[in-house]
Amino acid sequence: MEQILSCPVCHATLPPNSYYCFNCGKKLQDNPLTLINKVKIYAISVLVPPFGLWYLYKYSKFNDAATKKVGKVAGIVTIISLIVTVWSVIALTKALTIMVNRQLDQTYSQYGL
Ligand SMILES: [Zn+2]
Predict the structure, then answer these.
(1) Ligand 1: centre distance to CA 29 (Å)
(2) Of 68, 70, 72, 109, which shows the fewest CB atoms inside 10 Å?
(3) What is the pLDDT of residue 3?
(4) pLDDT grade for 101, boundaries at 50, 70 and 90
(5) In angstroms, what is the span from residue 13 Cα to ligand 1's centroid?
(6) Is the pLDDT of residue 20 over 60?
(7) Could you tell me the distance, in angstroms and rounded to a whole number, from the CA of residue 14 to the centre of ligand 1?
(8) Where are the domains of the chain?
(9) If you measure from the C-alpha of residue 12 to the centroid of ligand 1, how many angstroms do you get, rounded to a whole number?
(10) How many angstroms separate the alpha carbon of residue 71 from the centre of ligand 1?
């Protein structure tokens, strides 16, 4: 992980992994994701799975380990969501097929077929 030890603008000595220079306010690296942002990302991953994969791709390029983790979790949530979606569609299709077949059987037996 990259450690910024002095500000490129005012040359103040900074603690490692500072997001802003405390002296001049220069932005040094991207802010860590806030809890609200994380919740948003996970919600999007669950509700619209393809976007979760985009987060996985986007955050895998970040240096920050915490941000990378959010991307990974978003990817995992996306995959789980996709599996659940596919599984429900299959289950629903099966249920509908059984219903339709029963209906057809009844109709056939009514006409003595
Ligand atoms: Zn500075």
Answers:
(1) 13
(2) 109
(3) 55
(4) very high
(5) 8
(6) yes
(7) 9
(8) 1-31, 35-110
(9) 6
(10) 30
How many angstroms does the Cα of residue 31 sit away from the middle of ligand 1? 16
Q: What is the pTM of this model?
A: 0.57
> Cα of 6 to ligand 1 centre, how many Å?
8
For residue range 34-90, list pLDDT tens digits in order.
888 899 999 999 888 788 888 888 888 887 788 889 999 999 999 999 999 999 999
Distance 32 CA to ligand 1 centre (A): 19
Which residue has 């994969």 as its token pair?
53
